[in-house]
UniProtKB/TrEMBL annotation:
Record carries keyword Iron-sulfur: no
UniProt KW keywords: Methyltransferase, Transferase
Pfam families registered for this protein in UniProt: Methyltransf_25 (PF13649)
Listed GO biological process terms: methylation
Top-level taxon of origin: Eukaryota
Protein name: S-adenosyl-L-methionine-dependent methyltransferase
Gene Ontology molecular functions: methyltransferase activity
Organism of derivation: Massarina eburnea CBS 473.64
Residue ranges crossing the lipid bilayer per the database entry: none
Chain ranges of the Methyltransferase domain: 69-161
UniProt-listed SUPFAM superfamilies: S-adenosyl-L-methionine-dependent methyltransferases
PANTHER family: TRANS-ACONITATE 2-METHYLTRANSFERASE, TRANS-ACONITATE 2-METHYLTRANSFERASE-RELATED
Amino acid sequence: MPADDSTDTKGGTGEPAIRAATVDSNGIEKRQYDHIGLKYNSMHELPAVLPEKPSVLAALGDVRGKRCLDLACGTGRYTAFLSQLGACTVHGYDISPAMVEGAQKTFPSDLYPYLHFAVADCSKLELLPTPNEPFDLIFAGWFLNYAGTESDLTSMFRVIEAHMIERGKFVGITTNVDDPCVTKDKKDFYGLDVEVRNKEYRDPETGIKLGIVARIRAHTDTPIEIDCFQFGKEVYERCADKAGLRLTWKEVLVPQDAKVNPKYWIRYLERPTISIIEAVKQ
């Protein structure tokens, strides 16, 4: 994979692109969002991102009164969403100091006393603060897709399993795990371009084929580029099983807006950008 350039003018917009993350064969790149910060929020209104919230909402169920953990919380979008749904407290951790600083600025503690943000590496159990008690619900949006090996992904699932109560639940957003055309680029796809950078990505530790590596370019005012892994469903299920979790895959839902022609979403639903994961302890 290419080196982690901070800007790139590729794409024809004339605007330099902020490269959020460049992944490599050794796994997730640390502090990959440091030079984005609050600029990341500009992605939230892209059409490709709009199906996330209705899909997550349906998977979460009743959040009222629950203690929640948000892994790789970024600027706190879903941390706050969980609180709005009635969670009694939500702890958000992210490896990027810039993203956590953005979350704290957006949701200051004096106005949002039930939200708690801190910098931490969520990918390894020994690097995440030990809670006073496990959490009822754990959420992770765009976290698992930065695992570069099966051991990385298994480690992330072990973090989830260790921090969850016995009858707790995990809900996560990741890349599409069963796209039949996964090796094909997606151009002008609801505000995104998805370029396949490695059509046959193999685990550098074992040589097993895991999926692809893709570069996502967001057509925001200042274009943002994000490199990530896109593993197959069987890889996720295998790694979750090793960590003591049982996965189910939830339906991807599009926004129900009377002003939008339902046909607008046909192309999206053929190749959604997301998969929604639910996991419980075995």
